[in-house]
């Protein structure tokens, strides 16, 4: 089932999410619905706060990035096959020299800006079976994970922009929060939530 994606301005996007355990109700159904929602919106990642749940869960599928002709065959294959569910993630290390990449977000449609992040991470997480893993990632996979991890920490990519850039996009962000935007996937806007 495709769920509505919560738009910029909703307080759930600024909350630090809480851990869950294997008894979380209908978890496998939720994960399936989140993948369906992400694919329906042509995303490469989706975090639970983006569907209104302040829990430490996100998923990543970098297959759409595998079309980039500038990447090596090995990098393209890695991106084409990487798909992972992250439960209760904790980034243990971020290292290397920060690099810029033009990021967007399903909760903030039609806004893309360069964000600086470190290229390598080490992360501890549980998969959908609650098996614990500690893994290292780099490049675009690390970046997508960092972006989604920020969501469970209550941080948006726009929070990482300079005050000048924030001023430039303020009008767009206000329109998004009011639902004054054309999008081709289901969204829930803060203005609509208040009317209920």
From TrEMBL:
Binds 1 Fe(2+) ion. The active site is at residue 148. Fe cation binds at residues 105, 147, 151. It catalyses: N-terminal N-formyl-L-methionyl-[peptide] + H2O = N-terminal L-methionyl-[peptide] + formate. The keyword rRNA processing does not apply. InterPro entries: Peptide_deformylase (IPR023635), Peptide_deformylase_sf (IPR036821). Its cofactor is Fe(2+). Pfam families: Pep_deformylase. GO terms for molecular function: peptide deformylase activity. Keywords: Hydrolase, Iron, Metal-binding, Protein biosynthesis. Its EC number is 3.5.1.88. The keyword Secreted does not apply. Belongs to the polypeptide deformylase family. Removes the formyl group from the N-terminal Met of newly synthesized proteins. Requires at least a dipeptide for an efficient rate of reaction. N-terminal L-methionine is a prerequisite for activity but the enzyme has broad specificity at other positions. This is Peptide deformylase. It comes from Winogradskyella maritima.
């Amino acid at each position: 089932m495709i769920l509505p994606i919560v738009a910029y301005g909703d307080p759930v996007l600024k909350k630090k999410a809480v851990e869950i355990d294997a008894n979380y109700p209908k978890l496998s159904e939720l994960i399936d619905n989140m993948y369906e929602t992400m694919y329906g919106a042509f995303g490469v990642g989706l975090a639970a706060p983006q569907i209104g749940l302040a829990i430490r869960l996100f998923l990543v599928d970098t297959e759409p990035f595998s079309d980039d002709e500038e990447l090596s065959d090995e990098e393209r294959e890695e991106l084409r096959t990487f798909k992972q569910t992250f439960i209760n993630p904790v980034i243990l290390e971020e290292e290397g020299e920060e690099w810029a990449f033009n990021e967007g977000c399903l909760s903030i449609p039609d806004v893309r800006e360069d964000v600086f992040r470190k290229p390598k991470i080490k992360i501890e997480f549980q998969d959908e079976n609650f098996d614990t893993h500690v893994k290292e990632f780099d490049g675009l996979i690390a970046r997508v994970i960092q972006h989604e991890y920020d969501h469970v920490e209550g941080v948006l990519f726009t929070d990482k922009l300079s005050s000048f850039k924030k001023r430039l996009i303020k009008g767009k962000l206000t329109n998004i929060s009011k639902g004054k935007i054309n999008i081709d996937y289901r969204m829930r806007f803060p203005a609509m939530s208040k009317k209920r």
